[in-house]
Write a structure and sequence with these properties.
mainly alpha; Growth Hormone, Chain: A; 26 helices
Length: 535
């Protein structure tokens, strides 16, 4: 339902609504103030997103430095992710209660302080603890950034500001390994955290100067029961999911117990969030009465599972099959980022002018073509072919994720933007973790099915112990003369495994076309908040 803007213009002071249509005036362009605000948000997002991928490069280094196992150092990633998931639901309420500027400054401060403490950690336990502190700050940065940008630009320019925010979201996973590899090679692991200090100080000063003063009416009560149900529920669910790759199955107790507990808590949260007496739920599920929001969340979930899950395959292929180091793998992923940078600004403008539906359908179709090219890779596939496929995928990326977010946020009033961005970020975080676990397990099982890979792993574990090597040969029924020919098959068999997993990825990405077909295919008009909230 669209009503005349005069009915609630006083309640939505930072948007321009006129009978459901945006005013075609000079404000349709991103002015200097909006661009300044965008700079603040992008700076914070760069810190948060780069940190995730930079740390992933350092896991082997942590094993050596702290004399720990791979499972133990994985907690430096898991702890951050769980803290991230736990704090995201609180962000919408906190933004309304304390103001976006104050909360953004606090988030950057927490993240920066956590980074410095991580660099000073002398044990793995300390490092994991300080990574949790980082995650508490990092979890607020992205939903807050979306809220700040959307409110600053107004609904008629959401596509363009989302395109700005999409730069670090899409390029972080690509250039993070490059930065991490370079810092570890040229300095030490401490610098992957210390580099956040000057960026954090700059972000705090920049935000203090540029962001408008908060005008908050602290009237909303805090949903304590919602927090007790949802935040631990999300953390438990994601812990279970993140344990799947290590366990190799979803049936292990370490996976099932936290997942079932998490699902139970999340399911219990739903009726409480929708209850009439719960006026201000922790996460506003009533936003799903907005058709565009519902479709966008479904599209975002499926896309995040498919794309972010498959994204871990590219660097692994370069490292495990082609023998590249982390830095080399990161550099080879650059065409993906270049492709995204080409289309993202164009997609943002078009999403505002003609609606996000057509843009997203085109973007997903292009990604599907690029992903399908990877189903044909082998151990010696031309790098020209691979880089071209990555560039094609990048072109599609630039026209997909941010227009989906545009479809969700463009119809929300200023008050509901914080709640909507929180909902989107929860969806993306959960779906990305599910995708990562899914593709890790599929790839691991594919590799386990290759005899040459199993033999190579056993021989590597045996090392220079000739007796152990003889035991490996006996176990696999091989003679010493056959060993070299079996090991020679390893790159080809590994490449075949990757190609098989890319078939699954291609199918999943193509399935994103189904919810994308229901996204609005014309300029999105703001809606009546009372209709959307069911009051």
């Amino acid at each position: 339902m669209v009503v005349d803007g005069n009915q609630y213009r006083s309640r939505v002071t930072d948007t321009q609504i006129d009978s459901g249509e945006t005013r075609p005036d000079s404000s349709d362009k991103l002015d200097k103030n909006v661009l300044m605000v965008a700079g603040v948000v992008v700076l914070g997002a760069i810190m948060s997103i780069l940190d995730i991928t930079v740390v992933s490069v350092a896991l082997e280094t942590f094993q050596r430095e702290f004399d720990a196992t791979a499972a133990e150092v994985a907690w430096t990633m898991t702890g951050y992710t769980l803290a991230l998931a736990s704090v995201i639901p609180l962000t919408g309420w906190a933004a309304d209660r304390f103001g976006t500027k104050r909360l953004y400054l606090l988030a950057v401060l927490l993240f920066t302080a956590g980074s410095v403490l991580c660099a000073a950690a002398t044990s793995l336990e300390m490092l994991v603890l300080f990574r949790v502190l980082q995650g508490l700050g990092g979890g607020m940065l992205m939903p807050l950034g979306m809220t700040i940008l959307t409110r600053a630009a107004g609904p008629e320019r959401v596509g363009r500001v989302m395109a700005v925010l999409g730069i670090p979201m899409l390029l972080g996973p690509i250039f993070g390994p490059i930065l991490g590899g370079a810092l570890i090679d040229s300095a030490s692991w401490h610098w992957i955290f210390l580099i956040n200090l000057p960026i954090g100080i700059a972000a705090i000063v920049y935000a203090w100067i540029v962001l408008p003063k908060d005008e908050v009416e602290p009237s909303e009560t805090f949903d304590w029961l919602g927090m007790v149900l949802l935040s631990p529920g999300l953390a438990a669910f994601l812990y279970g999911i993140s344990s799947i790759p290590e366990e190799g199955t979803a049936m292990a107790a370490r996976v099932l117990v936290p997942m079932i507990l998490g699902i139970a808590l999340i399911v219990a949260f739903v009726p409480w969030a929708l209850a009439r007496r719960n006026i201000h739920p922790l996460v506003e599920l009533r936003l799903f009465k907005n058709r565009n929001m519902t479709v966008a969340v479904l599209a975002m979930m499926l896309f995040a599972i498919a794309f972010f899950g498959a994204s871990l395959l590219f660097p692994l292929y370069f490292i495990q099959v082609r023998g590249e180091d982390a830095l080399g793998a990161g550099l080879l992923l650059a065409p993906q980022g270049i492709g995204a940078m080409v289309t993202m600004p164009i997609a943002g403008i078009l999403a505002d002018r003609i609606g996000p539906g057509k843009i997203v359908l085109t973007g997903i179709s292009v990604i599907t073509v690029g992903m399908a090219m990877f189903t044909q890779i082998g151990a010696d596939t031309s790098y020209t072919y691979i880089l071209a496929a990555l560039f094609v995928m990048g072109l599609g990326m630039g026209g997909t994720m941010m227009p989906i977010m545009t479809a969700a946020l463009a119809t929300l009033t200023a008050h509901n933007v914080a709640r909507g961005s929180t909902l989107l970020n929860i969806t993306q975080q959960v779906a990305a973790s599910m995708g990562t676990a899914l593709f890790s397990v599929i790839l691991t099982n594919e590799l386990k099915g290759k005899e040459s890979v199993a033999v190579a792993g056993a021989v590597q574990e045996a090392g220079n112990d000739q007796g152990a090597v003889a035991g490996v040969l006996e176990r696999f029924g091989l003679s010493p003369a056959e060993l070299d020919s079996v090991l020679a098959r390893v790159p080809g068999d590994m490449a075949d495994s990757f190609a098989t997993v890319f078939i699954v990825a291609t199918i999943l990405v193509a399935c994103c076309l189904i919810p994308a077909a229901f996204l609005p295919r014309r300029k999105v008009a703001p809606v009546d908040p009372t209709a959307m909230m069911g009051h």
